[in-house]
Design goal:
This protein is an alpha+beta fold and about 140 residues long. The chain has a five-stranded antiparallel sheet, with no helix packed on it. β1 and β2 form a beta hairpin. The longest helix is centred in the N-terminal third of the chain and has 16 residues. The protein is elongated and about 60 Å long. About 15% of the residues are buried.
Length: about 140
């Protein structure tokens, strides 16, 4: 009986906690495509946003980024706090750091899979981020 109930439970857990539907012995993997996590970095100074290209990231930040992507796929609620710490170690003069995380998820409003944007704004070293979920297609 537990085996019969698990697919429904797994589907609810995936929806509620942004878990990876391809993990945790679930059948929700048949409902979701396998997706990746895209991450963008921007420095904000004097109200201007400057892109920090992936090619400019030092190895310590790149390792942390790979770790975050794996963690975010498995557990959708993972935050990029450790990436902020590594960025500030690599770039001590860094101003405000905006980390944009883009994932694909099911949008109930359109009944399609769409990109979901989560913004993490770190104002200073070791600060709590200001988190904004812009939602699907960048809409709030």
């Amino acid at each position: 009986s537990m085996l019969a109930a698990w697919p429904l439970c797994h589907r609810a857990l995936v929806e509620r906690y942004d878990l990876d539907p391809w993990r945790y012995f679930g059948f929700a993997m048949y409902c979701y495509p396998k997706t990746d996590v895209a991450v963008g970095f921007y420095e904000i100074r004097a109200g201007k946003r400057r892109n920090i290209p992936a090619s400019a990231l030092p190895p310590a930040v790149d390792r942390e980024l790979r770790r975050f992507r794996m963690e975010r796929r498995a557990r959708g609620s993972a935050h990029p706090d450790r990436i902020d710490a590594r960025m500030r170690e690599a770039f001590p003069q860094l101003g405000e750091l905006l980390i944009v995380v883009v994932t694909k998820a099911y949008d109930r409003d359109t009944a399609r899979f769409a990109e979901r944007f989560d913004d993490y704004l770190y104002r200073a070293a070791r600060s709590e981020p200001v988190v904004t979920r812009r939602g699907f297609g960048g809409r709030a």
